[in-house]
Write a structure and sequence with these properties.
- The termini are far apart.
- This protein has 359 residues and is mostly helical.
- Strands 1-2-4-3 form a four-stranded mixed β-sheet, with helices on both faces. Strands 5-6 form a two-stranded antiparallel ribbon.
- It is built from 16 helices and six strands.
- α1 packs antiparallel against α14 and α6 crosses α8.
Amino acid sequence: MTETGFEKAPARDRRRFPGISSRAYEHPADRSALVALRKLSGFDTVFKALSGLLPERSLRLLFLSESVRVGETQFPHLHAMLRDACYILDLEKVPQMYVQQDPNPNAMCIGLDEPIIVVTTGLVELLDEEEMRAVVGHEVGHALSGHAVYRTILLFLTNLAMKVAWIPLGNVAIMTIVTALREWFRKSELSADRAGLLVGQDVQASMRGLMKIAGGNHLHEMNVDAFLAQAEEYESSGDLRDSVLKILNLLPRTHPFTTVRAAELKKWAESRDHQRIMDGHYPRRDEDKDTSVTDSFRQSAAHYADSVRTSKDPLMKLVGDIAGGAGDLGGKLRDKFTGAAGAGAGTPSQDKGGATEQG
């Protein structure tokens, strides 16, 4: 494959998706936000003006001088994976990829004009070939969706927030934007996980990679079913206090929790939407211009409504009950926070000494 074209098919037989639109694999919340931004009048002009403030040129020079650029003579196996991923998702221009010395397993796709993919040595050393293929597909999915632009802005604003933290209220305004961008970016990670599965076409490899990111290179000590059971326990256990703690733990993160990502990806892999894509029925890029913002928001709203309805999280179940017309909000809140739902709200209980405990 040349910089702008393809010379050969992937190393093993994988299904290719000519002209595929990123809408095919994007999470509903991610998709609606992107469609709205792309349709916004003057959006491109604003970002071109903003690009002058962002240190993109500095980042490119930094990676060029301090990292190893992937190519036919440097990390050739990663270069082959990158070409294969671009071939499968029909991304014509292959992004530059760099390997950065860092023991922490990580990867990212950044850039305003052209995306750059960066993977750390910790990640390269941790994953096997098929697991790494899913990660490379994940990053190519970011590039195809245009996520690199927003990730770059998020990095810039996060750094800016640290620099203006001493200014009264200055940090608050920026962190409000950062928090909103993080919420969007967490959804974009779920989209990119799906792209990684479309590239690797091996759900077990995707699961193994996520387990290794969570627990290190001890695959013989881990089990996919047990790992997914952790996600089930995380979602359903505890009371409203735990639900609030989950939100507080998640707010500073750009990525969803790893067990949650694994559960979400497995659910999508078993869905009809995934099967339709594999059968060759998916949205095309040449149809993107006709995408309805209203329809995208409607799909996103339907997804969230379904998530609330089917969620086992105590807070989401309470929200569903309220939306469904359940009464006695005060009693439900009290019971959920105190764990007294099964004992009967406000019912006193006697301890062995005859004292009364209020539930």
